[in-house]
Amino acid sequence: MWATFFRRSFSTTPAASPVIYSHRSGAKQKKKGNASALKTPRGTRDFLDENAHRKSTIRTIEDVFKCYGGTELDTPVYELTDVLLGKYGGEANKLVYDLVENDGERCSLRYDLTVPFARYLAMNRVSKMRRYQIGKVYRREKPVMTKGRYCEFHQCDFDIAGVEEPMLPDAECLSIVDEVVKKLDLGSFTTRVNHRSLLEAVLLQCGVPVEAIQSVCCSIDKLDKEPWKKVSEELRLQNNIPSSVVSELERFITFEGENTDMIKLFREKVGGPQATASIQEMEVLFDYCNAFGVNVTFDPSLARGLDYYTGMIFETVLEDGACGSIAAGGRYDNLVHSLTSETRKPFSVPCVGLSIGIERIFSLLEQKKKNTKEAVADVFVASPQKSLLLERISVWKKLRDAGIKAQFERRNKSKFLDQLQFCEANDVKLAVIIGEQESKEGVLKLRNVATREETIVPEGSLIDEIQKRLVD
Amino acid sequence: MWATFFRRSFSTTPAASPVIYSHRSGAKQKKKGNASALKTPRGTRDFLDENAHRKSTIRTIEDVFKCYGGTELDTPVYELTDVLLGKYGGEANKLVYDLVENDGERCSLRYDLTVPFARYLAMNRVSKMRRYQIGKVYRREKPVMTKGRYCEFHQCDFDIAGVEEPMLPDAECLSIVDEVVKKLDLGSFTTRVNHRSLLEAVLLQCGVPVEAIQSVCCSIDKLDKEPWKKVSEELRLQNNIPSSVVSELERFITFEGENTDMIKLFREKVGGPQATASIQEMEVLFDYCNAFGVNVTFDPSLARGLDYYTGMIFETVLEDGACGSIAAGGRYDNLVHSLTSETRKPFSVPCVGLSIGIERIFSLLEQKKKNTKEAVADVFVASPQKSLLLERISVWKKLRDAGIKAQFERRNKSKFLDQLQFCEANDVKLAVIIGEQESKEGVLKLRNVATREETIVPEGSLIDEIQKRLVD
């Protein structure tokens, strides 16, 4: 039933001003009328990583993933079409890119990283695993670049497969997101959690007919952007839910309070074994979150990603409201089984996972001007005369061999002043200056770029002298 | 003409015993008769990075690339089909994977990283750039897993675009490969270099008809695996080259000697402005190589990647002969222009580049057992009693917040001995032991895993004590 929801699709509110990754020249891609104009395919873009922020962000996330026991898995960019078919719900299934058939094999580009992970588990009959994966996924949507909606974009997932202490892996997922957002210093944020089974039980108890649950969830999910008044109207007019049921729903869905109050309300007011079990799971989850030092808010209106989810679901939103969710996830205990159910030996593994919206994070960091341009070099090998290029290379090579981060002037004829200005503009600490006269005498000049002091150094002690100065 | 050569295609000699990346359980993918069996698409595989060697290899390569001024560029996995068409030569063009057309846009998976780079330069009219890219490329070939031939595999490229000191960028490419192979400690290796224009001039001078140049190159290129006798037979019988021409060819192609001898021979024996200019370029190249401390061998039989190449070409081979080339590249001055020649404003940039066969390197490192399993943690939080899971998490959280690499026992009921054995088996340095009695008294036990010594530590000074011990 929960068919039109996508697992882990981030809400489409755009980041305040989406960053266009263009070349350093600042030249934007020109629109051209003719068919032979050069461009990237619709909805894709080039990423030029001039600044170190993309790589350092990913490194930070990977370090957290590893501390939670994660192993990296890299799956093919395309899967057999049969593996992907029917896993994403009606609308989403249409958004899968197909490859032209190859020797009778139907393949499609991956739509997310979750189904490939489930395929890996099912194919290798792996019953326990913590894996992370950072990779591109593909959606044949109408791209809206200004809203940050692309056909090719990154996902950054961590998933825990296997039977562990009940709700501990769920809490670990929340703890991972908490750590990542704090480590990346993205500002205040809220993590809202809910339970898919509980939500279903609540809707049924309030009198929502089984066949309307999906559309009611769709409406309820809008509560993070719209007031209850508007949502309740939609429920009455579009979903034909009787007013009595809507006001019954209001009691549960819009209830705000401490997590313990919520637990109490649900325990008192929602009956049946499904609800009871879910409520208990949420209690255990909150205990673990407490131990992990993670703040979460029980939000009974959260209804995301229902095609996969079977248990806890969550979404993390930055409080400045500039962009939608930056992380989301939940428990999906039946996906692996659904992949094997047609084979002779069905295989099942419970799973829970999370997805971090790294592209959104890149944009945010770029806006916050947190770009840390990597130092070009510690030492620059320069020369005032032309035709000393080979000498510059030899000296540079010695520095490289000694493990010193160095660059050299690559132009044969280059104004000396330009070379010194390059050093100053790029925060290079030392310049090694090779002159014709000095070269004959077996000495070099070492220049402190900041103070502009120059010292004559014998060639033989150059490395020692530089290493001493770089340490100071 | 040179149509059947692929740029930068590595020779297909397999690595001694190709490594299958399977799950840690060691379970291999089972062959199944039924169509619904789960598998990855033909010629693709999952990579599980249990060991740190893949990542650390890439990090080493990236560090070298950056020291040569490289900026990372990430392009889409697919390009407009028109961009790729006709760039790879007759046979290779058939190996491009097409996507099912999307709103009238014909796209294909990228076949290498060079044409996308040239497209980027042409599209943004970039006249100077040093970029590196590590990514997957796609070839619709018949996969031969045992020979390491896949449909999806990685390429690792560095390219220099723009006008610089003649032959300096070419020498830098050779120096990069030299540094990478030495840094990765892959054993002795040889880098053979040649010049595409010179080779063409030699063939014409020896009397090879223009229309036979392509097939003659094909035969000559086999000289690294077969003796001259066999190649000369092929030239006579298959290519219909007269015996007189073949023996004339032998003089040049099989000549062995110092690079300076080769230069001398070609200068004396091959005429015309094309040959003269190429020979001079090679001389300058050798001077730069000398300054960079890079050994190269002038090999007039090297004939690789001729579809793109316009100048210097090279190939690096490990001497133990276990696998084919692990790096290759060359100069391609016309590719960017060929992409823009149909638009109103043609644009041209000379380029030279290299490609490192990282997958081959991964296999080699795996065989050499150079896998450095990353330490699971420095500290493990254990407890002898069950039901202390929340306490373990709280202590672990404190360690994490202090930046200590820690893990905790995740099972509620776990044998204490198993926990201690885990620490010993995984080289964990310290174990924090939480006991019920100690917990009440506000103290913890700190165990040195190697010496098995245990000390009682007050909770408040745990972090200090651990940090002190980890430094020691």
Automatic annotation (TrEMBL), chains A, B:
It catalyses: tRNA(His) + L-histidine + ATP = L-histidyl-tRNA(His) + AMP + diphosphate + H(+). Pfam families: HGTP_anticodon, tRNA-synt_His. InterPro entries: aa-tRNA-synth_II, aa-tRNA-synth_II/BPL/LPL, Anticodon-bd, Anticodon-bd_dom_sf, His-tRNA-ligase, HisRS-like_core, HisRS/HisZ, HisRS_anticodon. Residues 59-384 form the Aminoacyl-transfer RNA synthetases class-II family profile domain. One of its GO terms (molecular function) is histidine-tRNA ligase activity. Keywords: Aminoacyl-tRNA synthetase, ATP-binding, Ligase, Nucleotide-binding, Protein biosynthesis. One of its GO terms (cellular component) is mitochondrion. PROSITE patterns: AA_TRNA_LIGASE_II (PS50862). L-histidine binds at residues 112-114, 139, 155, 159, 304, 308-309. Residues 24-44 are annotated as: Disordered. The keyword Hydrolase does not apply. It comes from the Eukaryota. GO terms for biological process: histidyl-tRNA aminoacylation; mitochondrial translation; nematode larval development. Gene3D superfamilies: Anticodon-binding domain, Bira Bifunctional Protein, Domain 2. NCBIfam families: hisS (TIGR00442). Belongs to the class-II aminoacyl-tRNA synthetase family. PANTHER family: HISTIDINE--TRNA LIGASE, HISTIDYL-TRNA SYNTHETASE. This is histidine--tRNA ligase. The lineage of its organism: Eukaryota, Metazoa, Ecdysozoa, Nematoda, Chromadorea.
